[in-house]
Amino acid sequence: MIKHKIYNDNYIIKIKALLLAIMLIISNGTVASESKEEQSHVYLGGQVGVSHFLGACSSNAIECKNYVTGGGLYGGYQFNSWFALEGSWHDYGSPKTFYGVGDGYYSNATGVDLSVKLSLPVTDNLDLYAKGGAAYNYLSVSGNDNVHLGMFESDSSLDGIWEIGAEYALAPNWSLRFGTSVIDGIGNAKTGKSDLYFTSLGLTYKFKAKPEPKPETIVKLVPEATYYPEQVTLHFEFGESRFVVESKQWHSWNELALSVKQGQGKVSITGYTDAKGTDSANDIESLRRATYAADMLIKAGVDEERILINSKGSADPLVNEDLMRNESALNRRVVIQFNRRVGS
């Protein structure tokens, strides 16, 4: 039988309490971290590490190899960003103990377990996790001592298993896992009993569907609007306020008013008359015509603050009325100057 040192159960109780506290902290934190989206998926992985059989050797052992290489496979289903159900199989390795010539023991421990795994996202790529569940373990011991030659003992038991660690996403479907699991008391009185700590590095593959490509955003290039100076002349009958739009660009007053409204900057409106009246009468008449055109634009939606009204009476005639008396109507006019918008 394996001679092993008896450890205080209070030590393991403290370890269990610590692991349980960590799981509670993670479970509370994961509820608050639902903002991290995680597609439900199946995952598989493999791990290698070091098993420590604490208490496997007595103090009088000449040689004690209770740190051995182990490995395993695991897989599970990730329901959301923080909750998974996971199962695993492990070969925890073969510790050896020697007490003298012809007095030594060789052991091997394997186990399967089913656990709940809780994760707490720390960054976009890094999660902390804690696991807790039940493990079915098998321990075999063979060897010789001064009394028994060729002895063989084995034991299988259902034990609790706990694990804490961290997981780092290498890519959408690949991640690295580093953690330590604890099994309280593997073996029995015949095989020898020890507490098992397994520290490992694992590689996980997640069977996640490829995310659907986001629809490509089509950016329509809208040409910037440009503005060009424009001048339009309105002609009036003698003594009248009615006018005629003289322009090839606009076929009606409504079209002209809309263009002025969509323009930019100030709108200059200047009234003119012919030379038939007195200067004072012509000044009043030219102001009346300019004001009339301004009021019409304001009614069409042009901002009043943009409008500048001027009156020049009979100044700046288009035709010489002394030479072309029948063409004096050309001088009775209102000139509108503004910056016309071209493009979007």
TrEMBL record:
Keywords: Ion transport, Membrane, Porin, Transmembrane, Transport. The keyword Membrane applies. Coiled coil: none annotated. Transmembrane segments: none annotated. Belongs to the outer membrane OOP (TC 1.B.6) superfamily. OmpA family. PANTHER family: LIPOPROTEIN YIAD-RELATED, STATOR ELEMENT OF FLAGELLAR MOTOR COMPLEX. This is Outer membrane protein. It comes from Aliivibrio fischeri SR5.
